[in-house]
Design goal:
By secondary structure, the chain is of the alpha/beta class. The chain is built from 14 helices and 12 strands. The chain has 3 domains: 44 residues, lambda repressor-like DNA-binding domains (434 Repressor (Amino-terminal Domain)); 130 residues, Rossmann fold, CATH 3.40.50.2300; 132 residues, 3-Layer(aba) Sandwich (Rossmann fold), CATH 3.40.50.2300. The relative contact order is 0.12.
Length: 332
């Protein structure tokens, strides 16, 4: 492997001169810089990025931290859209992205401490959820810059990109009410998934019902995870709890896939007997079930904006105000 010493010998200069050329200092004559770079090309020499980054205290790497089990992360298309949005921006800006996902939710803090202990990242994109507040404390203690996908602690004002879940629940419910549906089911996030007091789909759902003087019925709201199997079980339970159900809002696309499976097994027509709306309307569900309308959450844009913000935080050295994105209702 070619070393710094080999380049110095080939260019007939000192090692210190080669080092100055690599660090782009202005203390080396132009013709000497040219000779050193030509020697590097001839010898196919590539500087050790880690060593250079250590010297300038910069790694050109951003961590993407999800404090949840890997089975959820790698199966969830919404999470993949967020990661894709962040990755596209970071790659174009010359950053690498390290994904930190615990094997199970109980190990989340251990894995994050391992990431920060080595100093291998310049900043972190954090998936905001109930457990994120412990990670935020760890970041604050060690002086790590971060931006969160969604609120990560109560009364957060800076360094986040949130999607307005209340607006999503309201838009979906208002549409279904306008179609004459009165017994509207809702699948919502699992218990302890969001931090306490964070606004969810259910708040907008309640508001729309209240505007029509319709009662909120506990038996029409079911907590589930964001998986196909979870959507399947939730729909079967909702059908059993209230046989008058005539519409269903799903909290994610996988949940909608599970709901479709349950309805079809029961011989129920998804758009006639029970009007179904999906929760993210990402490319996969558009390709498989193009007729299915629903809430379009801008998850790719959320990841993209989070990456743009963390780069600015690193460059400017200060916190930035949070951003809230609006979902759309798409009816085909």
């Amino acid at each position: 492997m070619t070393t710094l010493y080999d380049v110095a010998r080939e260019a007939k200069v000192s090692i210190k001169t080669v080092s100055r050329v690599l660090n782009n200092t202005d203390k080396v004559r132009e013709e000497t810089v040219k000779r050193v770079k030509e020697a590097m090309n001839r010898l196919d020499y590539h500087p050790n990025a880690n060593a250079r980054n250590l010297k300038r205290r910069k790694t050109d790497t951003i961590g993407f931290v999800v404090p949840f089990g890997s089975r959820f992360v790698f199966a969830d298309p919404g999470m993949q859209e967020q990661m894709r949005g962040a990755h596209d921006v970071l790659t174009r800006a010359g950053y690498d992205m390290i994904l930190t996902v615990p094997e199970n939710g109980d190990r989340f803090l251990t894995d994050v401490v391992r990431l920060t202990r080595t100093g291998n990242v310049d900043g972190i994109i954090l998936y905001g959820m109930a457990k994120a507040i412990a990670i935020v404390r760890e970041f604050s203690r060690k002086g790590y810059r971060f931006v969160s996908l969604g609120y990560s602690y109560p009364h957060q004002t800076h360094n986040y990109v949130e999607i307005d879940a209340e607006a999503a629940g309201y838009l979906a419910t208002r549409y279904l009410l306008s179609q004459g549906r009165r017994f509207i089911g809702l699948t919502r996030e699992p218990e302890n998934f969001l931090f306490l007091n964070k606004v969810s789909l259910e708040v907008g759902y309640r508001r729309a019902l209240n505007e029509e003087n319709l009662p909120y019925r506990d038996e029409l709201v079911y907590r589930t995870d964001f998986t196909v199997e979870g959507g399947y079980r939730a729909t079967l339970e909702l059908l059993k709890q209230n046989q008058k159900i005539d519409a269903l809002i799903c909290c994610s696309d996988p949940t909608a896939f599970g709901a479709l499976r349950a309805l079809r097994e029961k011989g129920i027509c998804p758009q006639k007997d029970i009007l179904l709306l999906t929760g993210d309307r990402l490319p996969l569900i558009q390709a498989v079930e193009p007729w299915l309308g629903g809430i379009h959450n801008p998850l790719y844009e959320q990841g993209r904006m989070a990456a743009e913000i963390i780069i600015r935080i690193i460059q400017e050295g200060k916190d930035l105000p949070g951003v809230v994105l609006r979902p759309d209702l798409v009816i085909t």
